[in-house]
């Protein structure tokens, strides 16, 4: 059970809730604070005080005063008008993460909502009701307005949800789960959609997937080193200590560990003096990729416990402040930085693929073909990898350098953080396919060298992957092999902790 306090949620807990359907509850102190702050909102309404989003319009309409009898309609109109998301929906995992993150942000008690709003989010999580949320349409400032509006629609029994492996009208799922649709009161619509929960949810999923893929990439690179009879001296501990980057040191240590009992690696001067950079510089490059991951993780860990709506209510109602905590710039920068690490993981992997298939660069069968000339072998797999790497380079362009004014220039600078996060996730999918292609090629190469000479750890990976993709004995439709191995890497239990302990 994960208990929300508004300030203690961790990425590990998010992973358990999203992927293992761990149940969620709210700390009793949170409910008390939420109720107290709700009374402040009601008092402002009773005293006819003017406050943004409670009895005023939104954005450029912030100077328009709303009649008391229209205050509840204002919130419903906000959700309806802002539900302008387009494109394919986010995955159920991302939708689920958004529910959890929004509930945690509202648990801070600064938003002026009724406890029933918070409880509805928790009920959706525990019942497995996941709003259908289109991916496109957020500028990443004023919060993720369009995506979060689609989330809010479902709480009201409108829009669509995923429920029990089916996409259906939200009202149908609510009836099946015996949950009553919400009716919004003052401030509550705004509290639900002012925030960075779409970009943060996508960012967390990307962070988790990137961590797993980096570990997989290292172990697959170790197998490639064996297939190319690489020089082990490049991973010497003293060499990497001399530079001092901790992530580089750790990558080198893991590569040494993977290859400890290999009879396929060589020493400098035995076959050649130095390997190409895509082999020799694995710790330097992948170590730097880990650095992008750690930076993004640090910012995400702050954001998951942040109050990101507007206005916020402090000191039991003695201070109400309108500000801009919904601006996604910190996450936009973090996601754009993470994209560099994702891009380079694929980039160096593709260069190792080239060294495995190019007969001018090795003594292996040309293109790892079982019958060179008559059969092309892995020739076009390298083409596919190169295409994916090139696409990643386009997607790696920083989304955060762009801004288009909105709401008649009231909201004149935005982060595009959700675009950055979406592109990071898209790049990860591309990179996983590149790494899968490297694994296919590395397995062919070590078979040529003699799998009995492999290190025990890379041999274990070889046997697991060979159960998914058989040896290439003749040309076949390799697209199917790539996709099967990619899915295996995505769902594999090859985790960070497991590999660190091996």
Low-pLDDT stretches are 496-502
Arithmetic mean pLDDT:
94
Tell me the domain tally. 2
Number of helices: 19
What oligomerization state is this entry in? single chain
Q: Helical residue percent?
A: 55-70%
Strand order of the largest sheet: 4-6-7
User: What is the name of the CATH topology of the largest domain?
Assistant: Fumarase C, Chain A, domain 2
CATH class of the largest domain: Mainly Alpha
Give the overall form: elongated
Task: Give the distance, in angstroms, between the N- and C-terminal Cα atoms.
Answer: 30 Å
Cα-atom radius of gyration: 26 Å
Strand tally is 9
Subcellular location: Cytoplasm
Keywords: Cytoplasm, Histidine metabolism, Lyase
GO molecular function, one term: histidine ammonia-lyase activity
Pathway: Amino-acid degradation; L-histidine degradation into L-glutamate; N-formimidoyl-L-glutamate from L-histidine: step 1/3
Keywords:
about 500 residues; mainly alpha; Fumarase C, Chain B, domain 1; Fumarase C, Chain A, domain 2; 2 domains; 3-stranded antiparallel beta sheet; two-stranded parallel ribbon; elongated; disordered C terminus; Histidine ammonia-lyase; cytoplasm
Layout: helices, strands, pairs:
Elements: E1 2-4, H1 11-20, E2 24-26, H2 28-46, H3 71-82, E3 86-89, H4 92-106, H5 115-127, E4 129-131, E5 134-136, H6 145-155, E6 160-163, E7 166-169, H7 170-177, H8 188-193, H9 197-227, H10 237-241, H11 246-258, H12 277-280, H13 282-303, E8 312-314, E9 319-321, H14 329-357, H15 379-395, H16 417-449, H17 456-466, H18 478-491, H19 496-501
Parallel strand pairs: 1-2
Antiparallel strand pairs: 3-5, 4-6, 6-7, 8-9
Helix pairs in contact: 1-4, 3-6, 4-5, 4-9, 9-11, 9-13, 9-14, 9-16, 9-17, 11-13, 13-14, 14-15, 14-16, 15-16, 16-18
Modified residues (2,3-didehydroalanine (Ser)): 142
Catalytic activity: L-histidine = trans-urocanate + NH4(+)
Family: Belongs to the PAL/histidase family.
